[in-house]
Amino acid sequence: DTGVSQDPRHKITKRGQNVTFRCDPISEHNRLYWYRQTLGQGPEFLTYFQNEAQLEKSRLLSDRFSAERPKGSFSTLEIQRTEQGDSAMYLCASSLTERDTQYFGPGTRLTVL
Amino acid sequence: GENVEQHPSTLSVQEGDSAVIKCTYSDSASNYFPWYKQELGKRPQLIIDIRSNVGEKKDQRIAVTLNKTAKHFSLHITETQPEDSAVYFCAAGGSYIPTFGRGTSLIVHP
């Protein structure tokens, strides 16, 4: 499968716990994006990377959220001290360059109890 | 920041009819307008996009129109089929980081 992959697909955690999600973009895609989607809403931009550099962060990304793309390939999104309001689908997307189509991964559904 | 409004939230049509979904945006600097289709439990998939230097784009049964003066753009699906049933999202943005609308649930009745 040469598409964007995400792991895990589902995560259930208790409030206050830390969680980490992984995204593997399409090979050679320079741009990698993270979005959050809640029921009945469109994806909301969180942050994006150009290779290993994190270039922009939404104000939605509180201090509890951190993202990395250490080698310019896969990326991780960590949420510390999870809250019930963090429950959502976390989507990753990648594109070859800034002008190219963004391809989405299947998402990680987070449920915070 | 950019604000995207999408209407209607639900659209029900008979197979073979046309469907039109409309979006407005607020930031005149936006220059990229993609449309995504998301089936239940699946990832959003790009179906068509348009850039600000073009007023209309067509791909088989799907067309998108853009009116930059009025800051609105629309998705047109002709000869709808049951497999077109899904949630459709419009988006608008500059630097190719789009702001998404809230989605339109399209239901095509056979």
What's the structural blueprint in terms of helices and strands?
The complex is a heterodimer of chains A (113) and B (110).
Chain A: E1 5-7, E2 10-13, E3 19-24, E4 31-37, E5 44-50, E6 53-57, E7 65-68, E8 75-79, E9 88-95, E10 103-104, E11 108-112
Parallel strand pairs in A: 2-11
Antiparallel strand pairs in A: 1-3, 3-8, 4-5, 4-9, 5-6, 7-8, 9-10, 9-11
Chain B: E1 4-7, E2 10-14, E3 19-25, E4 32-38, E5 45-51, E6 56-59, E7 62-67, E8 72-77, E9 86-92, E10 99-100, E11 104-109
Parallel strand pairs in B: 2-11
Antiparallel strand pairs in B: 1-3, 3-8, 4-5, 4-9, 6-7, 7-8, 9-10, 9-11
Describe the structure.
The complex is a heterodimer of chains A (113) and B (110). Chain A has no helices and eleven strands. Chain A has 113 residues and is mostly beta strands. In chain A, strands 2, 4, 5, 6, 9, 10 and 11 form a seven-stranded mixed β-sheet that branches. A four-stranded antiparallel β-sheet of chain A has the order 1-3-8-7, with no helix packed on it. In chain A, strand 4 (31-37) and strand 5 (44-50) form a beta hairpin. Chain A is globular and about 40 Å long. Chain A starts with a strand and ends with a strand. The model of chain A has no long low-confidence stretch (mean pLDDT 93). The model of chain B has no long low-confidence stretch (mean pLDDT 93). Chain B is globular and about 40 Å long. Helices cover 0% and strands 55% of the residues of chain B. The termini of chain B are far apart. In chain B, a hairpin with a 4-residue loop joins strand 7 (62-67) and strand 8. With 110 residues, chain B is mainly beta. In chain B, the strands form two sheets. In chain B, strands 2, 4, 5, 9, 10 and 11 form a six-stranded mixed β-sheet that branches. Classes of the chains: A mainly beta (113), B mainly beta (110). The A-B interface holds A 4, 33, 40-45, 48, 56, 91, 95, 98-99, 101-107 and B 4, 6, 34, 36, 42-46, 49, 89, 91, 95-103.
